Amino acid sequence: MFCRIIIGLLIVVSLQAGEFQSGQAARAVIGQSNFSVRETGVSATALALQGNHLYAAEGSGKILTFDIAKLPGPREDMAGYPKGSCNVCGLAALAVANQNVFPGIAGVSSLGRTVVAADPAHHHVLIWRDSSEPNAEPDVILGRPDSSSISASTLVNPVSVAFDGRHVFVGDAALHRVLVWDTLPTSNDQPADAVLGQPSFSSTDTSDNPDAGTIFLPSALASDGTNLFVADAAAHRILVFTAGDSALPEDAVVNSATLSGGSIAPGTLVTIRAAALSTRSESAKQTADERLPVKLGAVEVVMNGVALPLLSVSPQEIQAQIPYGLENVSSASLYVRIEHSDSSATITNAIAVSVSPAAPGVFAFTGTEPRPGLVLHRSGAAEESAGTPVTAQSPASAGEIVTVWATGLGAVVESDASAMEGVPFAGPPTPVASPVGATVNGHAAQVLSAVLPEGAIGVYEVRILLPPDVGSAARAQLFLSEHGVTSNTIVFPIQASKL
To answer: What Cα–Cα distance (Å) separates residue 100 from each residue in 9, 64, 251, 327?
Structure first.
């Protein structure tokens, strides 16, 4: 019951069409079981699209054929898809043929009379608007090789290009990124409109850990006008980036308790904040045994191709729950799908969400950080249940047992009842799988229990024994820690022990 009150409190407190956004994530991945792994997969050096088939040529002399119609479409209703860990990952090859491919084919793209060619030796990309004219000089030369000042015009090692009749894409192996021009460039050294694989035009981040938003080696590119297929040869995968109808910022997803970004744990309640997320506001009905809907107010939140359970939607904010089944996953791809009255659907761009086993957040009231925490006295009953709120008029006492409520504590130990996203926990109260610590005003405090209570959806109950020597404080500070990650800090009043 109390967990449903918390969820209700969350609900109360809480571009242009078809363009790529800088720093956005891929929507799907081919050749790997999720966005986090880097196992033996597809190491393509050239890509080509023909209808629903994607052809990937590898340096080993093989051409793989993929039926991309088997991937859910970007605007497809995902409510009916299975609740597995990823519906847009993997995709086995339809056929494999032994065939050598002319090296360097990824460096040229043509459509009609327009030709776009990479010139890595001179750090340039050359564009001919009308290649039918013999011996014509290129109409536009893109690229500025000065790597000391990375910008939207910088090209260091352009190894792949694609032109779909509108966008121009250039893969830069040295900068681990793909530059995107929304229209065919008309002037030399014209800056790109968006960058994929990096958070910004000036970034040169590299990491050994793949995620949904990084590109190690853009060895080949292909575009169908909506989706960009990026052969990331070094990570043995093909990433599928999709242009969104509206922008979803890369920091849009936050822990609903901390109200801040960072890694998200399985089962966490999250808040998604952006513009134009819905055409109306609606909240899910809260019952003791009914599953949360995955479509609410004509809105779906899609993570790894799976529609998430929703608590509420509004034009500026969505409340959802992250799935529990995210073992061995450190990165996921998330976007929002919105249905309209004319039966059409629009989507945001995808963003990368970092996933970790635990990312604790303690629920608090509104205000400036650190915010007043939702802290309860022990009731005094034999079962030590939570009682009245701790307030300035009724402060906690040193040596007392208090209860706080959290999300992001991750998996629970195995029991007769399984924790399932969007479903009230069948109980009985079950401990979380990782030990939870607490610190109160700089003193280590004993955590007596950290459990997923019966009837809870993503809200955990944590009982803490306040240290007897913690002293008095009008704004004592408390935070939790789990799996090496600390929560937000909350404040509450403590008085010296009455003994």
So the answer is: 62, 12, 43, 38
* Residue 142: CA count within 13 A, CB half-sphere: 30
Distance CA 433, CA 274 (A): 33
Gyration radius of the chain over CA positions: 26
- Global pTM reads 0.92
3 membership: H or E segment, kind and range = helix 2-13
What tokens were used for 222?
């292909």
For 444, counting Cβ atoms within 10 Å of its Cβ (0-12 exposed, 13-18 middle, 19+ buried), the class is: exposed
Q: What token pair was written down for 369?
A: 């950080």
Return the structure tokens found at 459. Answer: 């809200």
Residue 202 to residue 222: CA distance in whole angstroms:
25
Q: Which backbone phi and psi does 466 adopt, to 5 degrees?
A: -65, 135
- The residue among 189, 191, 190, 121 whose CA lies nearest residue 157 is 121
- Report the Cα–Cα distance between both ends of the chain, in Å, rounded: 34
pLDDT tens digits, 157-172: 999 999 999 999 999 9
The residues that bridge with 159 in the sheet, in sequence order, are: none
Q: Considering Cα of 101, then 103, then 109, then 112, what sign does the dihedral take?
A: negative
pLDDT at 14 over 60: no
User: Contact at 8 Å (CB) between 362 and 438?
Assistant: no
In angstroms, the CA 3 to CA 11 distance is 13
* Cβ–Cβ < 8 Å for 263, 354: yes
